Task: structure prediction
Amino acid sequence: MPSYSLRGRIAETLREAILNGTLEEGQRLVERSLAAQLGASLTAVREALIELEMEGFIQKRRNASTYVTKLTLEDAEKIFAVRSALEAYAVEQAALVPGRSISNASRRDTSRCRKQLAPTTAKLFAERLCLA
Result:
């Protein structure tokens, strides 16, 4: 559900910039610069940064600056282990219809998809980490 508050729009803009690489891992974020670039108040930018920090996209260092979170290979492996389990569960739940159950063929298809997608996704993410 899209956010129509100024804070939400700023957070979404920054989130997208992080995800598409416009804001790079480890890059320092200066609140005044962001406010000027986005045509917003410092308060709105600070609120958006708090949201992004809670989501793990950025890290604020005490008495210092704010940086885009830099993931380690270990972080990426943990993320993909959880993601793989959640995606498989989501597929299984989506296949359930009240009064019906997943057939053995559907279970095999779900398992096959899980095995094929997880390594590909993890490989692409690992390549991005290595290029950073």
